[in-house]
Amino acid sequence: MKKTLKEIASLVGGEVLGNPRTVITNIRGIDEAGKGDLTFIANPRYLKKIETTRASAILVSPGTKGVNKNLVVVKDPYVSLGKILDLFYPEEHAPPKHAGLPYIEKGAVVSKDATIYPGVFIGEGAKVERGVILHPGVYVGRHVFIDENSILYPNVSVYRRCRIGKRVILHSGVVVGSDGFGFARPGRENIKIPQVGYVQIDDDVEVGANTTIDRGTLGKTWIQKGVKIDNLVQIAHNVVIGENSVIVAQVGISGSTKLGKSVIIGGQAGLVGHITIGDHVMIGAQSGVHEDVSPNQVVSGSPHMPHRKWLRVEACVSQLPEMRKTLASLLQRVKELEQALDSKS
User: Fold this and answer.
1) In CATH, what number does 3-88 get?
2) Which of the residues 237, 290, 304, 307 is marked catalytic?
3) DSSP alpha helices (H): ranges in 30-165?
4) 150 by DSSP, 3-state: which?
5) Can you tell me the distance from the alpha carbon of 71 to that of 20, in angstroms, rounded to the nearest whole number?
6) Tens digits of per-residue pLDDT, 151-208?
7) CATH code of the domain made up of 103-308
């Protein structure tokens, strides 16, 4: 694909500083870019590379200066990069041309405008709307609903009665609606409690590879609009994740925990069950969250604490061996002083 800087600026609502007729054929990182390439700077740490990059043009924030460089000035270079990448590298979902057929049970309703690859199973009572793409190995259980333009990549499993909204992306290996971890008398008899709820995933959600979202014991596990979930995340039964929240890889969220809107959870954090996380909370990587967190807080550590306090605690950790030696020395001096006083009395 070839686009001039003028065309690219028009797409992203930017301003060209330099030659608007410069032709762009590729998008590359700032170190690899060369003639015909567009690159970007979203982090101020890389501003010094403006002088050395061989790119034909650079996406930058307002106020950025460059010497003899073509710049496209935009409000948010990273957001604009996403739009340009969509233009230059559109996702290809060609209709299946291979031998073999999907297996669709009687009573399932599949739009003629959906793309269903060989090896897909669609259960009785399921409904698949227009524009949906089901890649090989996808399992759609009975009475599942998948709304328009959603994409399920290979080997995704959606258990019975779950609901998938519009423009949802489920990457390979995602499991939606597996049983919640419910057992009575745990560690003694482990009596299984039937999990009869479901999972609801709202519009514009993206779920990374090999993430699991358990069905509710009763009622629903609910992933609300615009949520983005990374790979290898475990979401337990009856969890609610509020709109536009971001969950990074290897996070575990225990049953019946509620997350507000725009919550961000760093990698490998763990949340106990039956707690509430307020709107706009940020949880640091590897944190252990054991109780409610009020809105607009930043917490880190295990057990969690305010982020600034955690920074002070961590700053002391590396000094503990030296502090221990100092404390032992002081205790010895106190002992010697006490012995000296006792000998005089």
Assistant:
1) 3.40.1390.10
2) 237
3) 77-88
4) coil
5) 9
6) 999 999 999 999 999 999 999 999 999 999 999 999 999 999 999 999 999 999 999 9
7) 2.160.10.10
